[in-house]
Design goal:
It is a single chain. By secondary structure, the chain is mostly helical. It folds into two domains: 7-188 and 257-465, Growth Hormone, Chain: A (Up-down Bundle), CATH 1.20.1250; 202-256. Helix content is 78%, strand content 0%. Helix 4 (51-74) runs antiparallel to helix 5. The chain starts with 6 loop residues before the first helix and ends in a 7-residue tail after the last helix.
Length: 466
Amino acid sequence: MTISKTQSGAGLALLLLCAANFLDAMDVSTIGVALPAIQAELGIKATSLQWAVSAYVLGYGGFLLLGGRVADVFGRRRVFLWSLAVFAGASIAGGFVNSGETLVAARLIKGIAAAFTAPAALALLLQVFGEGTQRAKALGIFASTGATGFVLGMVLGGAATIFSWRATLVMGAPVAIIALAIAPFVLPADQRQTGPRPRFDWAGALTITPGLLLFVFGITNAAASGWSALPTWGSLAASLVLILFFLVVEAHHEDPMVPLSIFRRAKLRHANAIAALFQGVYVGFQFIATLYYQNVLGWSAFVTGFCFAFGGVCVMFLAPRFASVAQNRGTTGLMTFGVALQAASYVFWVSAVGHINPILLVAFSQIPLGIGYAMTYPSVQVAALSDVEGDKSGLASGLLFASFQIGGGIVLAAASAIFAAAPSFGWDPYVTGIAFVALLAAAVTLLSALGPRTSALQSGTYQAAE
């Protein structure tokens, strides 16, 4: 029995789904500021340390499409509950790791669990809330919690590291356990199949999942070992073969895991492209700025994490409002202006670093960055889901979240390579790295402006997402 059809029940369901979304996003960045403490205790080599972060992204990005389709076929609530339980268990296990290998394994399992939780949660939200204003508000809140979790992950990680770096791994478990206890009473039960259950596309799953895993692994490994390393180009080549084979399988399957016709939808294509690029640019900036604040300025993990707090506050309070604007007035203009503000923030950082007080540098760069992120993140979610039918909402959610993760990996690898190569040319690595980020953000602004102009509600397509 569920109570999600009542107003209070729907609100509680939204709170629960947002909590899970916050945890999934938070874990992407929360461990970053704890890396020096982890290295000191576990003795992980510097070249292997990045995998404490990347393992989560590897599991998250590699399994998202599978997670979204499994939720659509086998039941969204069932998948949500099982994956959240695995996430909680891996979080607790993370507090007891005693080597780099066990740490990476715990992070990988959490990432895989998040890949099933995130699309199931978004699909459940679309199921709980009806069309129009209520859904617009709920989607805005959901989007804001995901963005807030990612942006504030470093702040929370820095605070937790004061006590122990292990707290960064465990702190999500209590929330996940409470959500598991409440979920059966507030989330809608999975609908019984009236006809034959759709055939699950095992061939598609067995090609796209390892294909994405190898792709994410390849671009992540490039940041540490370079593009010429065998694990890097070998993984990318194998990934290309598997993805091409996946496209052939999907074109001939009666009930494909990813119907290729879904990519004919202009809003979905455009939103996924912007999601990948704008998130990638932000991840690249966050990576280089964090190194600068700790290695050059000598700030602690907590202070470094706190530098990103204003952006998280902006997202928390402004993203729901911008989501409503996107619903009523269209998404293209809003995401264009949002990415432009972020580009302006990166340009300011490059121009001002070393010339003004570091506290002013952080403050003045975070204002446009936070507001711009709060505009862009919900806009791409609204656009991506605006013309997707209910039975494909899990898949569309998986595509969107995969775009965020894979885009972050690609741009981070490129920014890291530029950062590492800059000193050999006599360039400042921090200025050069973020100059690259700023140029890419300017290009993303132009790409954003080329998107569809019609309003989701005016075109009537958003209602189809029921």
